[in-house]
Specification:
alpha+beta; about 30% helix
């Protein structure tokens, strides 16, 4: 199962700026745990960001996104789209295996 996490600012980038260090630490923690595969800012950056997550169920990813300092400080929200991969590029097969 994969989750596409769309982060949208509910405040200005300037209002979100004080929470960036906590958000970066949050991203790093979940990248190191193997849950977040890719994360980055949208273009333009004022829209927010996006994350591809794996290896956890929908309830768990909802709990994880609720812990983002951007969310806990009221400057962003997430939209979560959960997908079951149907076709996978050969270079991603091992990464997306269940249980990894």
């Amino acid at each position: 199962m994969l989750h596409l996490l769309q982060l949208r600012y509910t405040a200005t980038e300037q209002e979100a700026a004080p929470h960036v260090p906590g958000h970066v630490a949050y991203l790093e923690r979940h990248h190191c745990a193997g849950t977040f595969l890719v994360s980055g800012q949208t273009v333009p950056t004022r829209d927010g960001g996006a994350i591809i997550a794996r290896g956890v169920d929908r309830g768990t990813i909802e709990e994880i996104t609720a812990q983002d300092p951007f969310v806990t400080n009221g400057v962003a929200t997430y939209t979560i789209t959960t997908i079951t991969p149907g076709r996978v590029h050969p270079t991603l097969v091992d990464i997306l295996k269940p249980g990894r």
